[in-house]
Specification:
37% of the residues lie in helices and 13% in strands. By secondary structure, the chain is α/β, with parallel strands linked by helices. An 8-stranded parallel β-sheet has the order 1-2-3-4-5-6-7-8. Helix 7 links the parallel strand 7 and strand 8 (226-228). The N and C termini lie close together (8 Å). InterPro entries: Amidohydro-rel (IPR006680), Metal_Hydrolase (IPR032466), Metallo-dep_Lactonases (IPR052350).
């Protein structure tokens, strides 16, 4: 089973999608299942995990509806307000959707200390009951908070998105590396090798640019806690789908076939409890 463990769908709305700036013009379009499916087929990928890009229950329902209509969408990482005092009620309601596998909040846009807030942690504490993962979307300066979060909830499954977006463009690695090593010491955390090319110079990056960061991640997370994700369509800022897939598939040639299969899908199946 080969899975793209991280991609997005949206119907572009300039009023809502203000994060898509003019320099990201390629993203100012609708990106829907019919756009992704042929790309998956070209690379012998069996399916994908659709991840929220907006912070509303409407967004979650939009993705779940797409998943219901498209069997290749194996799972959804949605959004619910984890800080809501009624989060238990919302989780119970949404647990009836079998393709909802986890939740994510755009913590990279929040003030320092967000992951340590009592209301947020109350929401995190409620996820294990439903076997929901939590995807951690942060910048490197928030890694220390993430370490505290995963330490606090040792039975909760966490997945770090985009390797915490290292500062590849600025060639900064040391502080990020130290924090990644510490985070990886907690066995309830996996890491998506995704979204790295867009942290480099979009037009000029090469595989040699990305390799030091992949080396760090695979050295500490290994091949059983790393998941391939394309971050399509955001990845289009730095190259087409083939370029994104080839970067990771070429890098992991150094590992045995069985471990390559884990990275390219079996780990996603395991961590997200995906069905064939």
């Amino acid at each position: 089973m080969k899975i793209d463990a991280h991609q997005h769908f949206w119907q572009f709305n300039p009023q809502k999608d203000t994060w898509i700036t003019d320099e990201m013009a390629v993203l100012k379009s609708d990106f829907l299942p019919e756009d992704l499916e042929p790309l998956l087929r070209q690379h012998q990928l069996d399916g994908c995990v659709a991840v929220q890009a907006g912070t509303s229950e409407k967004e979650t329902l939009f993705l779940l509806d797409l998943a219901e209509k498209n069997s290749f969408i194996k799972g959804v990482v949605g959004w619910l307000d984890l800080c809501d005092e009624n989060i238990q009620e919302r989780l119970h309601l949404f647990s009836s959707y079998k393709k909802l596998k986890g939740l994510r909040h755009i913590v990279q846009a929040e003030a320092d200390g967000f992951m340590l807030r009592k209301d947020f942690q109350r929401g995190i504490s409620a996820l294990e009951k439903y076997n929901f993962t939590y995807d951690i979307l942060i910048f490197p300066h928030q890694l220390e908070e993430a370490i505290e979060l995963v330490r606090t909830f040792p039975k909760q499954k966490f997945i770090l998105d985009h390797c915490a977006k290292p500062y590849i463009k600025d060639e900064k690695i040391t502080v990020w590396k130290n924090h990644i090593e510490k985070l990886a010491s907690f066995k309830n955390v996996a890491c998506k090798v995704s979204g790295l090319t867009t942290e480099a110079h979009w037009k000029t990056w090469k595989k040699e640019t990305i390799k030091p960061y992949l080396d760090v991640v695979f050295n500490v997370f290994g091949t059983k806690r790393t998941l391939f994700g394309s971050d399509w369509p955001v990845s289009l800022l730095a190259g087409n789908y083939a370029k994104t897939v080839n970067l990771i598939e070429n890098y992991i040639q150094q590992f045995p076939k069985t471990e390559q299969q884990q990275i390219m899908g079996l780990n996603a199946k395991n961590w997200y409890s995906l069905e064939n």
